[in-house]
């Protein structure tokens, strides 16, 4: 017939027919208990299999606030989940100097077009004094797809910075909504570079690089920035800084400074990042966090607002105090011509002849109010 084995006891079946009624009743009770235990074990086994094969076991639990918080809580050792951050890290590592410093510019379609601003910028590095090697450390931050495609066709270190719902491909006129959005997007992204652990020299693309600027930077200073107007004292916060050129070291102080800078948009609505920097540069919070700030001399870091007068000292020249891409292009092209004439001189001529810039010309007639 059939037999049931329960635990380590004796099999129950036909051999037990001669047992007493009490023994038979006990056997039936034992059989029922074994069946119940078997059913319970089967249910537990199926439940465990379902839980094991569910990608998120908490999905089987009630959607209470407690379980909801567990469901959305990331693992303690989770790495940054944003894909673009990994891409950025790769680009920064590829371009960085030994001390984890990169040179960064931003580029959109209007400034990336052939024979446009990007070409002038690269030419300045090509013809500058000991600037050729710096191209290897240049990170181009493309603000639209065409600018990115132009970059990757000619340069190894390109990063595509997308901004949902905003088209940055066209020229952004001064203080328009697109301009303000672009400037603040740029400022926030520079903080991301600091958070990745990299120092950066940020340069507007309409700045021509004629000499290696690193020997002119202050050592071990957190934040140093070029000026539209410089009064001769690099410590004086009455200098008028220009956000288009700065050297920033990555540390907790500069990261907090950039956060404070961005948060100040609420205090001063409708202002660009440079205007707000001028308003917060004396704020006690910067002293509290221990930020060291220096202002760079226009003798080395000049522009159309306040030109560098000595060709033997100038490192960079900026097409600031100027409206319009066409006006900037014309005057910067002439400026590169001035530099080429200087570089064609021999050492004696460079030391004895006084050269001057032939610009601004077009930009002089398009000065911002």
UniProtKB/TrEMBL annotation:
Alphabetized GO MF terms: transferase activity
What organism is this sequence from? Dillenia turbinata
Instruction: List the PANTHER family hit by this protein, alphabetically.
Output: EXPRESSED PROTEIN-RELATED, GLYCOSYLTRANSFERASE
What is the designated name of this protein? Nucleotide-diphospho-sugar transferase
Domain Nucleotide-diphospho-sugar transferase, residue spans: 134-332
Q: What keywords appear on the UniProt entry?
A: Transferase
Q: Where is this region: Disordered?
A: 1-24
